[in-house]
Write a structure and sequence with these properties.
This protein has four helices and ten strands, in the order E-H-E-E-E-E-E-H-H-E-E-E-E-H. The two termini are 29 Å apart.
Length: 185
């Protein structure tokens, strides 16, 4: 399975979020990607390689993904997060009916099951469509028109931590516990 990291709030150091990404590499490792303050960065390796290409020190909006490829080839194009119109998001899990869902909604086939989530969301602009996908699903996305972070979780772990400065999410709890301790929570 893949790993997800997300943050929304006041400026926080990029190193704190990259620590969470590194923690989630155990769930991925085939490729890594991040949406940071309006920009998307991707690499075909573990998340540590992202830090050298991210041009941000302080972050107020972040979605990170460490991919373990289950559908689709290991390419930069298939690395999360994906941009579909006003949505930028990633997914952790396996969708068993993504081909049928795309056909039902008259959408072009996708090579990675996760892309079906955002293709359908872009077409319908309705979060209820996430319920049409079967299997395991954690989806995290930003609507770039509002800069709102959205989180949908079903049958997969995704931990949340709220601080004075913002809200953190991670597929692995340990990293959040370390950050909480550093912040005195």
């Amino acid at each position: 399975m893949c790993g997800i990291v997300a943050y929304i709030g006041k400026d926080t150091p990029i190193n704190k979020l990259m620590y969470l990404m590194n923690d989630n590499d155990s769930r991925g490792g085939h490729s890594s990607g991040a949406y940071v303050n309006g920009n998307i960065y991707k690499c075909l390796d573990k998340s540590g390689n992202l830090l050298s290409i991210i041009n941000e020190n302080k972050v107020n909006s972040f979605i990170g993904h460490t991919r373990y490829a289950t559908h689709g080839e290991q390419t930069a194009e298939n690395t999360h997060p994906y941009n579909y119109g006003k949505y930028i998001g990633c997914h952790n899990g396996v969708l068993g009916n993504h081909k049928e869902t795309m056909l039902k909604h008259r959408l072009d086939p996708v090579d990675v099951d996760s892309k079906a989530i955002y293709a359908l969301l872009q077409k319908t602009d309705d979060v209820k469509t996430l319920g049409e996908h079967n299997g395991t699903i954690n989806a995290v996305w930003v609507d770039i028109t509002t800069n709102k972070l959205h989180v949908y979780r079903r049958n997969n772990p995704l931990f949340k931590m709220r601080t004075e400065d913002g809200i953190y999410f991670s597929s692995i709890k340990k990293g959040l516990e370390v950050i909480a301790k550093e912040l005195g929570y």
